[in-house]
Amino acid sequence: MELLKQRILKDGVLKEGNILKVDSFLNHQVDVELLNEIGKEFERRFRGEKIDKILTVETSGIAIAVIAAQYFNVPVVFARKTDSKTMDEDVYESTVYSYTKNKSYTIRVAKRFLKEGENILLIDDFLARGKAMEGLIDILEQSGCNLVGIGVVIEKGFQEGGKNLRERGIRLESLAIIDKSKDGEIKFI
């Protein structure tokens, strides 16, 4: 998606360790016009697929999933990372390791929001090693839902997440795939 790539080049900040910071437009401050185009692009790429719900992980994936959901006319469910007194007791759970935060956390989805046989599209902002997606896939397997595919805004192509998912036969649509930077310059695959 050329518009996204241009925005990454303009406003993305490459930090030590090939960490791409896009918080000025994607996952802290949100450019709604850009997100709207991202939502349209996900709908275009998954057009013709039967999708009952979109599933994401809190927090950065929520805005993207909600914008995309309006084009599919489906609800969004998000896996919670934090426990809450308002969270249902009957949940699907999976443990996910975050390399960014250097810790594991449990993600949860109330069972009443995922019904066996539903067709689910997973959406998130980043894909690196794929651990968040693995956790969501685990939850879908527990629920008996069908994985339609995965949509990510930015994939780190030099890490194994995308490769591993594709090798499993999972449909993965990444709007921008970043190559490992050289000399501090952002490159796309």
How is the topology of this model organized?
Blueprint: H1 2-11, E1 13-15, E2 19-21, H2 32-45, E3 53-57, H3 60-72, E4 76-79, E5 91-98, E6 103-110, E7 119-127, H4 131-143, E8 146-156, H5 161-167, E9 172-182, E10 185-188
Parallel strand pairs: 3-4, 3-7, 7-8, 8-9
Antiparallel strand pairs: 1-2, 5-6, 9-10
Helix pairs in contact: 2-3
Describe this structure in words.
One of its GO terms (cellular component) is cytoplasm. With 189 residues, the protein is α/β, with parallel strands linked by helices. The chain has one domain: 3-Layer(aba) Sandwich (Rossmann fold). It is built from five helices and ten strands. The strands form three sheets. The chain has a six-stranded mixed sheet, sandwiched between helices. α2 crosses α3. The radius of gyration is 16 Å and the shape is globular. 35% of the residues are buried. The mean pLDDT is 94.
